[in-house]
Amino acid sequence: MIGMKHTKMLFSLFALSGMLFFTGCDDDDNGAPALTIQSISASGTDLETGQTVQKDLNAASAAEDVPLDAVMTVTFSSDVNASTATASNVSLTSASGTVPVTVSASGNTMTITPQQELERGTQYTLNLGNGISGANGGAFTATTRTFTSAGRGAVTPPQSASQTAYFTFDGHADDAMGTYDADDVVDITWVADRFGQMESAAQFNGNTSIIEVPNGADLLTSDWTLSFWSWVDTVDHVNADGNKAGHFIMGVGAFHGFQVETNGRADVLIMAARYSKEDGTTIPNNFFVNADGQDAANGGWDAIEVEANVAGGMRTLLAQKWAHIVLTYNSEENKRSLYINGQLMERDNLNIPTDLSTVNGLTFDPTGTADVIGDKLAFGFPFDRSTTLWQNEPWGSYNLPTANHFKGALDDVRFFEAALSEAEVTALYNAERP
Length: 434
Prior knowledge:
- By secondary structure, this protein is mostly beta strands.
- The protein has 2 domains: 37-149, Immunoglobulin-like (Sandwich), CATH 2.60.40; 160-432, Jelly Rolls (Sandwich), CATH 2.60.120.200.
- Helices cover 9% and strands 36% of the residues.
- It is built from 3 helices and 27 strands.
- The strands form 4 sheets. Strands 11, 13, 14, 16, 21, 22, 23, 24 and 27 form a 9-stranded antiparallel β-sheet that branches.
- The longest helix has 23 residues, at 2-24.
- It comes from Cesiribacter andamanensis AMV16.
- One of its GO terms (biological process) is carbohydrate metabolic process.
- This is SbsA Ig-like domain-containing protein.
- Keywords: Signal.
- GO terms for molecular function: hydrolase activity, hydrolyzing O-glycosyl compounds.
């Protein structure tokens, strides 16, 4: 009995020593402790305040409002093998693809710097691979962290396949579609947009500001939609006589292509445009909207099918505030429409006037004048600076600060080679509104 008891005790001791031996090897094959994460943070500029902020990417819930210029820092339990801190072991991905990053390590910290600004309102995944190791040879177990960047995510508009240009004005004048990037930006200030996000809208000073986009005439098509957000400053914008000056908001060759404008009180909105006709000729015509309720049946022009009756007039919608403006032309129906904030302001049936009954689209026609008519899209004036039209007019010369330069802000300008329906305009407004 005694011998059996000693035998059992010896067996138990051997078994226990074996457990201790194998337990001691759990950290790594070479005995080094495993490399683990202590913290992950992202620091950068807050999109609304401009202040430096830091976000915790290692919290129990996914971080939100991570700065677009974020630099990420990972702190480990021990020093990192710097040769393993590479882009092959660290990646940053979203639904749009992989964001190029530079990776470096010093001591027990790893720094990850995206080589481009993050997209707004987008979910990203930070991938840390098992190729990372400790300076002492400790192994690292691959892991991921998910977060959402600051700002509003991109809006997919109705009939997105027909969108030909999209200017976000998020600190630049490039076309998000990649075709119509501006080649000249003059005296533009990038300011907060309707959501309060910094450097997210283009501000025009009312004197010299202009953005010019090559080949703007190509944006005029048979079926057509222009959508944009505007903020019209009617308080401190005067002409040479000290009276309120009008605002040329944008255009291509003025009425040789199109122009959008409002007066000094912002109580009308006008689009002068050139229309192509079935016989190959062209004709200019003004789309004048004041929302006074006078359609064809109530003392208005014969072609007006619908005219909204806005209490207080258009300026209650346009002046000193952000407004969503959409202009459309439907070639099949030969009708044009204006919407503000998702509501139909006016619809014209161009089949009724004899001279417009055969028009079939918007076009650019610089002929029939001795003036030079540039074909660039201009924001802040009705034509580009190569144009000599109205150069002797006090309201129409770009070189005169007191001319009808646009004073205010623009954002999210979209062109379509399609006529959005009323329901689609409302959907776009609801998707883009604050």
